[in-house]
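Fold it.
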Amino acid sequence: MTEQLLPNDARPLVDQIIAAALVRCASDIHFEPTAQGYEVRFRIDGLLQPYQQCDALVGRSLVLRLMVLGQLLTYRLDIPQEGRIAHERAGGGTPLDLRLAIMPTAHGLRAVLRLPAELLQPRTLAELGLPPAVFAGLQHFAAGDGGMLIVTGPAGSGKTTTIYALLEHIARQGAGLSIITLEDPVERHVAGITQIEVAPHGELTYQRALRSILRQDPQVLMLGEIRDAATASLAVQAALSGHRLICTLHAGTIGGALARLLEMGIEPYQITSALYGVIAQRLLRRRDPTGGYRGRVAVAEMAYLSAPLRAALLRGADADALQQLLAAQEGYVSMLSTAQDLIRQGATDDAEVQRVLGAPPGQNGS
């Protein structure tokens, strides 16, 4: 049941909402204008849940308060804006670094507040709970000295969490390594790593930063996301020149990720020479003893370039053909198969697997 906010000073209301989000382990807070007023919703375990409703005057006051805290232009109500807020917690301690995004809509300003990732996300490879084959593949990559690793999946599938855990593992295991990341934005600060925040629509773009960084003797590089052909080409060139490179790519499947590289104009022989492997992953809500959901568990699959996959890439095969070849690889374990194991263990259920993976209830994923 939602609660009705009363119009009063916005500052304690903002503090109250943030405190409630922290208690409920939310990752984001949404302040959404509607025809009736404003609705405050929390993203918990990947899904938005209603928290409070308020009238338009109070809602505007909340958003304007956030803009003041984020040092944004409160007189510009017609443009998107982004900022950061150092939120002082009631119990003291280090302030929380909150990311704020403002967007004008037909009913008023919409605000989204992102809570620090480290409050919820696992920090080590072991804590990720990945399937054994994927866990072993990441460990092997971390111990290597070259190649390109792609982590793929839709937004909110845990890609960045996996990469941060991998980077921390590499930093711990490889003392003296030069590790540099290019991110938009930096979501978690990691000791022993140089992190650079790029601005895709500003002067410090991925391409410009990557060209410069390659002249600064890095050994491990992380690109927050490959979004265009120019960045993809530079990433592949970096991997071909002996760097370990980790990146994300939005694609539904491993085959789709490989096909996207081809569509971006990367030569097939470069892909087969540079690529170490591709991971696809999703997050499923975990069942708790009460019958509800609390927390999430990862399902993932990993592929390496077998001889048939290399041959298919060299002839420019499409995503479906690449995925079929992947499924035929010896030792391949699909995300769906892992999800079915989790159902049998009682860790999740058919409805959640169907929601996330689109699999018919009860389907055997082997």
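The chain has two domains: 3-118, 121-357.
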